[in-house]
Amino acid sequence: MGSQTTEPNEAASRPVLFFDIDNCLYPRSTKVHDLMADLIDVYFATHLGLPEEEAVKLHKEYYKNYGLAIEGLVRHHQIDPLDYNAKVDDALPLEGIIKRNPQLRKLLEDIDKSKVKLWLLTNAYVTHGRRVVKLLGIDDLFEGLTYCDYSKVPIICKPHKDMFAKAMKEAGVEKAEDCYFVDDSYANAASAQELGWASVHLVEEGLPVPETQASKYQIRHLEELRDIFPQFFKSSNSA
Predict the structure, then answer these.
(1) Cα separation of 237 and 239, whole Å?
(2) Residue 219 CA: distances (Å) to CA of 10, 127, 201, 211
(3) Three-state DSSP class for 102?
(4) Cα–Cα distance, 239 to 219 (Å, whole number)
(5) What pLDDT digit, counting tens, does each position of 71-126 carry?
(6) What is the pLDDT of residues 138-184, one digit of tens each?
(7) pTM (two decimals)
(8) How far is C-alpha 44 from the geometric centre of its chain's CA atoms?
(9) H helices present in the chain, as ranges
């Protein structure tokens, strides 16, 4: 599995179902996002010499403006993005938090790979993305991974349209109508919808439902994909 380009003749044969990774393939209740936010705040304070309160404020501002805090750091402060990755994403103690998920594996195994290609699409760097799906015990079920390449400037990430174009190219799919997508981010789900993808916004149970849906489809559990995209599943129920 890796960020890669598929041969053109294969592009016409199967649509692609793209999955976000963080807070999508594992629940928000794991608090990985909170741990990451804490490490980002520390990074801002340490490397920019900011008081804690200002570091938190700037972190939120960059996340809102660019979709990733690191893009603001690289754009405005010439921070080494791979150093950031080592001290934030790769420093997370995931081995003690993310566990194998047999139900998730069963869901993904029930998808007929002769009908649709499974692909990962994340704003994380490649090391974090691969680490998470390996811990979940599902790394062998995806044909590839499109990630935010921190080593390139400018940094391109969701919800920017260029990130979705990159994913299409690497997954070997030419038409937007052949792209299916699941993400917990409102902005990412909305952007995919605008580009013509069949977009699913995962709003985990316990979280408030947005007043206006991000996309045509909105779900509480990944299991609901069986009902939304029955054409891709070997069986129509989770039994």
Answers:
(1) 6
(2) 30, 28, 6, 14
(3) helix
(4) 19
(5) 899 989 999 999 999 999 999 999 999 999 999 999 999 999 999 999 999 999 99
(6) 999 999 999 999 999 889 999 999 999 999 999 999 999 999 999 99
(7) 0.91
(8) 23
(9) 8-11, 32-48, 52-66, 69-77, 81-87, 102-109, 126-136, 161-171, 186-194, 225-228
